[in-house]
Amino acid sequence: MICCLNPDCQNPINADDNQFCQSCGNKLVLLKNRYLPIRPLGDGGFSKTYLAEDRDKLDENCVIKQLAPQIEGTKALKKARELFEQEAKQLQRLGQHPQIPTLLAYFEEDQRLYLLQEYIEGKTLEQELAEAGPFSEDKIRDVLFELLTILKFVHQQKVIHRDIKPGNIIRRPASAQGYEKKTELVLIDFGIAKQLRATVMANITGTTIGSFGYVPMEQMEGGKAYAASDLYSLGTTCFHLLTNVHPWDLWKKQGYRWVNSWRKHLKQPVSEQLWWIMDRLLPESYQHRYQSVDQVLEVLELQSAPSANPSQSTSKYNESFLNFLTSLRQNDQLKKQVMMGGFSLLSLGLITQGYGYFRYKTFPSNLSFLMAGLPSSTYLKTTLNGHSNSVRSIAVSPDSNYLVSGSNDHTVKIWNLPKGELVRTLNGHDGNVYSVAISPDGENIASGGDDNTIKIWNLKRGQLKKNLTGHQGFISSVAISSDGKTLVSGSYDHTIKVWDLPTGKLKQTLRGETNWVSSVVISPDGKTLVSGNGGNTIRIWDLDTGDLKKTLTGHRDSVVSLIISPDGKTLFSSSLDRNIKIWDLTIGELKNTLTGHIYYVHSLAISPDGKTLVSGSAKNTIKVWDLETWELKTTLTGHKNWVSSLAISPDGKTLVSGSRDDSIKVWKLP
Pick from 243, 134, 230, 140: which is nearest to 185 by CA? Predict the structure, then answer.
């Protein structure tokens, strides 16, 4: 069998002994007197791909890609040749990676440009999806990790793929080429053909480089492409594989709005860790996406890294030993006390616990290093179990008697905090509950989630009083003013809505956010609203007028939690950049940055006296900070997954933490 290379031929397949195409009459050729095209593989509009045999290598299979067919005009052809050679040399370098096809040759013949590449056996992920249905989360994580590893190499070569999609990813089976791995993904079809067409025909027609649905706006509008452009295409690819919904079908109906509600198309639940990654891959503006492959890989590796078991006594002793040594190094007087007390450095790791506990009980106002030396179990009062999925948000009533929790199990639970008992479960949300707040009079609960609604409940009776609608994306954060009259909600639809809480009527919608709103908080005097977003910025608003007063910058990643000091003068913000920033809220200037978390900081709480800050992280730890000295007082361990929410009781005695391990822990505030 031999294939006609006339790109306009309607029936290119011919018998081996034919010299001329039986369909179009063109001469059937052996490219470079060596490569025999045997059948078409694909048609990209400006390029065609054929399976071929290399007659000089015992008919070994290879791939012919025919580019820029019959370019007219000397100037255009010359420009195409220059770019073709430049791009071919890039492909030659890229082919050194084992998961990118090797470029065997490139040449021009009969005013057509050709690439000869290694043939990759296997099925594309598009074929896998059609045959087996939506991918599982584990399978998607494997795809992400392999593709990101390939893209890291590609981007290091200063190349952007431009056309990542399921059809351009082949799973090579173990038997092919003798590879040892079970399977291996191979990234094919770099955007050379699209780049050629865009360059050669730029003055004739507008050209989109990439495939509709997978291509980001910057490529659609201006043909520009960045590392973040490939990451967007990777995100849409994962979405397609997770849902079996083509992103172009959604784009045609909703435009970019579909990325705010992509979870609604899931056929099976996925972890919040994965949707955090997806949310950072898919924003419309490339500046709001992950900016490099390393950023995504860091999060993936963080999520897959095994966590230390906090129940193991050795980890407790090790942590306390390190805390003790740190304090010892920083305090000369303490060194003398330790030596005079007869401590042996060889036994410090064993006796710090007992000594610290004795000093804590006997002299509770003594040095903070003693607190750091205490085991977390010293502070832990109880663990509340009852949710069947991640606990996303918690709030404590003004009288410190009730705890309210919202969860990914679609419920809101009300607990008796002093007794540690479940009072009742509130059902009504059709999705994850991401945020809860309690009114200052202790009468009402506000809850928001990914069903795009805010529900107002009576705390004592558990009765649903109001259902507020209007947001076009899920509600990430709710806050109630100190007078109980105003409710504020932040959403993934990039808006903030201000509601009259007693009537449930919408007062105004604040616009101006260029990314999803992650957190909202109201100042104690009720005059100022602060919002954080996925675009790394914090905005300060006049709550009465809705005017934007100031934008704070400084975080290097999404701002995920905000809290204001009881006196209303200081703002605290935490971010996926692992830092906590402290701002002078009155003038909008940065005062300090707290570091110490090794993974991103997901939640914050402040004590009623304004002296203690508590932060929870993706490392499953809680850190307690002294705000008078800016020093770390202690680190609490015990959760087995991210600490997603924190609250301190109004009486200042109790710290509560909610986690993605489905549990709530109640602590004595250190």
Answer: 140
Task: State the number of CA atoms in the 13 A half-sphere of 624 facing the CB.
Answer: 25
- Gap between the Cα atoms of 193 and 437, Å rounded: 54
Rounded-to-integer distance, Cα 410 and Cα 106, Å:
57
Coil, strand or helix at 104: strand
Percent of the chain with pLDDT over 70: 82
CA 45 distance to own-chain centroid? 34
C-alpha distances out from residue 234 to 140, 278, 289, 290, 602, Å: 11, 9, 12, 11, 25
Those residues whose C-beta lies under 8 Å from the C-beta of residue 137, and which sit 6 or more positions away, are: 242, 268, 270, 271, 274
Residue 110: beta bridge partners? none
Q: How far apart are the first and last CA of the chain?
A: 80
Catalytic site positions: 163
Q: Are 519 and 559 in contact (CB under 8 A)?
A: yes
- Are 288 and 535 in contact by the 8 Å Cβ rule? The answer is yes
Query: Which residue, among 292, 369, 307, 306, has the nearest Cα to 337 in the 3D structure?
Result: 369
Q: Which residues pair with 40 in a beta bridge?
A: 50
If 0-12 CB within 10 Å is exposed, 13-18 middle and 19+ buried, where does residue 461 land?
exposed
Contact yes or no for 454/487 (Cβ under 8 A): yes
Give me the DSSP letters along 577-606.
TS-EEEEETTTTEEEEEE---SS-EEEEEE
Q: In the beta sheet, which residues pair with residue 665?
A: 383, 657
155-179: pLDDT as tens digits: 998 889 989 999 999 999 875 444 4
Rounded distance between C-alpha atoms, residue 478 and residue 395, angstroms: 11
Q: 123-304: CATH homologous superfamily? A: Transferase(Phosphotransferase) domain 1 (1.10.510.10)
Distance CA 411, CA 656 (A): 18
Residue reference for tokens 């005059």: 527
Q: Which residues contact 359 (CB under 8 A, 6 or more apart)?
A: 366, 370
Q: Give Cα 653 distance to the centre of its chain.
A: 35
CA dist 148 and 168 (Å) reads 14
Considering the domain delimited by 388-599, tell me its CATH architecture. Answer: 7 Propeller (2.130)
* Statement: 2-118 belongs to CATH 3.30.200.20: yes
Q: Kindly tell me the burial class for residue 616, based on how many C-beta atoms sit within 10 Å of its own C-beta (0-12, 13-18, 19 or more).
A: buried
Question: So what's the pLDDT on residue 287?
Answer: 79
Q: What is the CA radius of gyration of the chain?
A: 30
Helix residue ranges, H only, 120-226? 125-132, 137-156, 192-200, 217-222
| Model pLDDT for residues 12-24, shown as the tens digit of each residue | 999 989 999 999 9
**What tokens does 84 get?**
């073709």
pTM of the model: 0.62
Backbone angles phi, psi at 261, to 5 degrees: -130, 30
- Between CA 276 and CA 253 the distance in angstroms is 24
Classify burial at 457, counting beta carbons within 10 Å of its beta carbon; exposed 0-12, middle 13-18, buried 19 or more: buried
Tokens 């002299």 — which residue?
363
Which of 653, 630, 654, 632 minimizes the C-alpha distance to 368?
A: 632
Torsion of CA 240, 241, 242, 244, to 10 degrees: 60
**What is the separation of C-alpha 568 from the centre of its chain, rounded to a whole number of angstroms?**
32
DSSP SS3 for 336: helix
- Where in the chain is CATH 1.10.510.10? 123-304
